[in-house]
Amino acid sequence: MTDSNLLKVGSRKSQLALSQTQIIVNQLKENFPDLKFDIVTMLTTGDKILDKPLPKIGEKSLFTKELEAALEKNEVDFVVHSLKDLPTSLPPNLTIGAILKREDPRDALVVNKNLNFKNVSSLPESSVIGTSSLRRCAQLCRNYPNLKVENIRGNLNTRLKKLDEGDKYTGIVLAAAGLKRLKYDDRITQILEPNEMLYAVGQGALAVECNKNNEKVLDILEVLNDHSTILRVIAERSFLKTLGGGCSAPVAVSTKLEEKELYLTGAVWSLNGEKHIQKTKSVTISSDEPLRKKSRVMGESHAEITARNISNNDLNLSENLGILLAQDLIKLGALNIISEAKSINEIPNESPKEKK
């Protein structure tokens, strides 16, 4: 950088991505008023290919690869992601340097603005629900077999337009966090609780990725970290990594941290929702170990997250919770379900409940 107080920030070009990046920049400006920020936008593979379901594109890191390439070339100092878009394994020289306080991680039903249905249970037989997520698709098929589930792609605004201006979809299911960040709270017909729909790993959380050896940037990003969110998402990400899931298989979670007890629920489904394995596990978080920031090994991370201002013992407990829960599901046959889903590797044109 020619200006030592200037930081270049990588972001996708969508309205939601830029809104999320601005949240990061605003918080950093509050803590470091002398710093200046230049937002560098770019399109990712997932932004460019809109005519296929995400799992059928056949590539990983659909919404992150181009941003990470810019980071590795030192064209930007850090990049902002929706954490759920970040794979559980990052390029070897990169890390997640900050996780902000989580927005609502749940999913939301949005009904066509010209219809008056109040919840998913009230939708008529054979109503079409749009989603680009295998996870949502499988759970909808299992819990609401009277509905049809079809693919819908595009950014949030595009999907809302497709919903309202066409006659194909009765409703769509989206992350509540995105709707709230873009001030579309009034479009939320129903928040889907975890007992109705478990959410994606990391959903609702913002992540800042940087070079793991860039001590200056890591020190700056540290102020963004939210203790509870980090412990929850480390458990979620280690669960997913141990299972070897991703966008090509229906895997979902929910977490909560109550006092000192961290609870993790994890599940896998077949694409049509008929096969299902789910368990819950918990661990007691100490939260009282003295911080050992200066003694940490450079590049040390948990589930690819570097959080040097949080107890190392707590980070280990969270990571191990995810691993142990995944191992429990593996003993019950989870890998067979995931392998079968990956072999199909697409959301069918017809409702997945027709896949046997």
UniProtKB/TrEMBL annotation:
Keywords, in A-Z order: Porphyrin biosynthesis, Transferase
CDD domains per the UniProt record, alphabetical: PBP2_HuPBGD_like
Domain of life, per lineage: Eukaryota
Residues annotated as domain Porphobilinogen deaminase N-terminal: 7-218
Pathway in which this enzyme or protein is active: Porphyrin-containing compound metabolism; protoporphyrin-IX biosynthesis; coproporphyrinogen-III from 5-aminolevulinate: step 2/4
Similarity comment text for this entry: Belongs to the HMBS family.
Official protein name in the record: hydroxymethylbilane synthase
